Amino acid sequence: MINIAVVGYGNLGRGIEFACQKNKDMNLKAIFTRRDPKTLKTNSNAQVISVEEIENYKNEIDVLILCGGSATDLPVQSPKYAKYFNIVDSFDTHAKIPEHFNNVNKSALENNKTAAISVGWDPGMFSLNRLYANSILPDGKDYTFWGKGVSQGHSDAIRRIEGVVDARQYTIPVDSALEQVREGKNPDLSTREKHTRECYVVVEAGADKKRIEQEIVNMPNYFIDYDTTVHFIDKEELIKNHAAIPHGGFVFRCGETSADTKHIIEYSLKLDSNPEFTSSVLIAYARAVYRLNKEGQYGCKTVFDIAPKYLSPKSNEELRAQML
Amino acid sequence: MINIAVVGYGNLGRGIEFACQKNKDMNLKAIFTRRDPKTLKTNSNAQVISVEEIENYKNEIDVLILCGGSATDLPVQSPKYAKYFNIVDSFDTHAKIPEHFNNVNKSALENNKTAAISVGWDPGMFSLNRLYANSILPDGKDYTFWGKGVSQGHSDAIRRIEGVVDARQYTIPVDSALEQVREGKNPDLSTREKHTRECYVVVEAGADKKRIEQEIVNMPNYFIDYDTTVHFIDKEELIKNHAAIPHGGFVFRCGETSADTKHIIEYSLKLDSNPEFTSSVLIAYARAVYRLNKEGQYGCKTVFDIAPKYLSPKSNEELRAQML
């Protein structure tokens, strides 16, 4: 059994609880929280412990999974805890990955620990597919589409508008764009041609819906470059129809191997729950990190550095006989 | 530059020639053939050399790519040449992979060489996707569909029928089955429900078409379990419309992470040329084998054992900054 602990008990932490139930070699031993441990209601027998005490558990935990956010939690937590634990995180601020990698790598190397950062589906499985497909078809073009799914960042941006009580924003790939790519037409697609945005918004009584709608559709960076639809709904409907956190997307590579000989590689995900799927990827990489550390492979890794065999509970012989 | 040589100059060997033109770090240095070298018309400046002389070139070639067949060529060639060269092959007799692995591994380990076997798309990229997806969604179901594409084995089987001059057999996935899987319905599908087979057959003048059609559709192992359509065409039409060797397929994993929370992972390939795509995968793994050997990682590997970063010409820093 591999002893797992999480730091943070939000959607990702709960996802790890579920994932440990699906993986027979995983034992969720502890949940570390910044909240008062007594106030946490969990779905497993894991001990709930204040994160203040985490260093006392460094000999009991094989892999620590960091379930905080990329903005402020992980840049601090991952390098800090990589001194005491093998860790996995889902750091997803693409532009800051090199800096984060270096910080975690230093901590892990100095302490003979193994870390995997930026694990999930994007970055993560989508990145892997971009790398494999680019290596196979060097003369080609990449396309990534996201959705249909809830974008947390865009939902939050709507919530910050005056008069808005709550909101859910769906990112939706444009079907005709997907079809053009799938048919090998290699289109040049603008931002607007790739995705639309659909918003479900709950407002305060008497709020100016016209003004709110204009603020949304014209919001720089978030909405102005997209065709955006705004639906005003009441709180009950939001809870009833928009509580789930689905997501997914498509990664394409379209390339030529010789004149007029085209190939299309497509990878897609359709996820009922973005955090539960991400947690399932994190658990598979926790298994890898555990094994790499046992082999003396220390330092920080990404999905690019880890051979696929390390993710599976099966032996190398079983994998060759059953899966190749 | 990585110096590449091939053994065998059929469709795969020609595909390697094309792939070396698309990859700036690859130099196709030699083509080893069992034929009289003078009779070979090639599409590159590579030296054409009798395979009898291959051992004389062991210090000039970084990676030897074996482009023969799995039935009789590779079981002999791969273990034999792994004594003198780093090798890559596309051995695809699934049931015999463990034995082939052991034979190649022994040769390579004894001689500090690195080998990658069963590289291509199935086995190869499809296997990788099965492994990743199974590791992420342990509670789930796998589906593999092949096509639309030319099955060489089935085309050959038709050609062995008395009165048949030539034939091309297409394997076609059943759309409604694909849709059920894509919608997460987890259907139980029989062989007949997954694929149909379409045959284009050229017969001798005066041949008994009725008998030939019956022999095809009732052929054990190859056709009897499928809905098979037979079209009789003339040689000109076969050459004009059925000269290409397209293929492809779909790998699905449909799984649950908690009650009623489903996820679907789909990987698909649409290939204008089966051998050119396979060759492009072989070349990416030749790069990996070259690097692994430089690092002292000897012995036989499969796609499961090789970290993705080794396939790309980009540095680890570039990969993290640009592709993660």
Account of the 3D structure:
The structure is a homodimer of 324-residue chains. Chain A is of the alpha/beta class and 324 residues long. Chain A has helices spanning 11-22, 73-81, 97-110, 125-136, 152-159, 175-182, 191-194, 209-217, 235-241, 274-294, 316-322; strands at 2-7, 26-33, 47-50, 63-66, 86-88, 114-116, 140-146, 149-150, 164-173, 195-203, 227-232, 247-258, 261-271, 299-301. The longest helix of chain A is centred in the last third of the chain and has 21 residues, at 274-294. Chains A and B meet through α1, α3, α4, β13 and α10 of A and α1, α3, α4, β13 and α10 of B. β13 of chain A pairs antiparallel with β13 of chain B.
Summarize the structure.
Two copies of one chain form a homodimer. Helices cover 34% and strands 27% of the residues of chain A. With 324 residues, chain A is an alpha/beta fold.
Neighbour order of strands in the largest sheet of chain A: 3-2-1-4-5-6-14
How much of the sequence lies in strands of chain A comes to: 25-35%
Order of helices and strands of chain A: EHEEEHEHEHEEHEHHEHEHEEHEH
Quaternary structure classification? homodimer
| Number of contiguous helices of chain A | 11
Q: What is the mean pLDDT of chain A?
A: 97
Question: What is the first-to-last residue Cα distance of chain A?
Answer: 26 Å
Secondary structure blueprint with pairings:
The structure is a homodimer of 324-residue chains.
Chain A: E1 2-7, H1 11-22, E2 26-33, E3 47-50, E4 63-66, H2 73-81, E5 86-88, H3 97-110, E6 114-116, H4 125-136, E7 140-146, E8 149-150, H5 152-159, E9 164-173, H6 175-182, H7 191-194, E10 195-203, H8 209-217, E11 227-232, H9 235-241, E12 247-258, E13 261-271, H10 274-294, E14 299-301, H11 316-322
Parallel strand pairs in A: 1-2, 1-4, 2-3, 4-5, 5-6, 6-14, 10-11
Antiparallel strand pairs in A: 7-12, 8-9, 9-10, 12-13
